[in-house]
Structures are given as structure tokens and as C-alpha cells.
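As the next step, I selected for study a record pairing a protein sequence with its C-alpha cells, which the following lines show:
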Amino acid sequence: MHNEHSWTERTEEGARREIRATKFGKKWRLQAKVRGEEAWTYYDDGAPRHDLEALLDILRRKYQRRRASHEDVTSVEKLLADSPPPLAPTHNLNPLPRPHHED
């Protein structure tokens, strides 16, 4: 069975980004393209975590309306569980200044 889900989002720079997730057999394939680019970026192994989270949200909503299968939801949940955790923000990792002590 072949099914496809697509959505758009805005990048941090404000550009429109289109994402497509296609399931063929039991394997998901994600691809993305920013408006203005000619070629799609394919994520055959290791799609960005935020794209997998968005796909899971879409599938859960579709499942409630009987537009997606439970197998689709659980397969994306497994992909998320197997993906590396998100990185901690680095902007808060600067060391604090040392307090000045007078002896």
C-alpha cells in the first residue's frame, strides 16, 4: 500500500518549506524542499526529528478521523524512538562569570 502525507512550514529565515512523507511497503521516505530550490532533499536514512514529530502529529489526527492506519502511527512512533534525542540548546551553555573575591 502506498500513501503520502505532505505539509508546509516556515524556516527560521521565513522561507516556505514543503515536506512529503511517503510510505511504500513498510518503509517511510521523507523529502523536503525550500521554495525557490529546484531539487528535493531526500531523507532515506535519518530524517530530521522535527519532521518525524510533525508527521506523527498529522498521522494521529488523521487516525482519529479514520484517514490513517494504526500501523502508520506506530511505525512513526518507532522511528522517533529509534532516532537520536534532540540536542540541547547551546546558547545557554556559556560559563557564568566567576564572582570576584577580595582577600
The chain has two helices and four strands. Helices lie at 49-64, 70-82. The beta strands are 2-10, 16-24, 27-34, 41-43. Residues 90-96 have pLDDT under 50 and may be disordered.
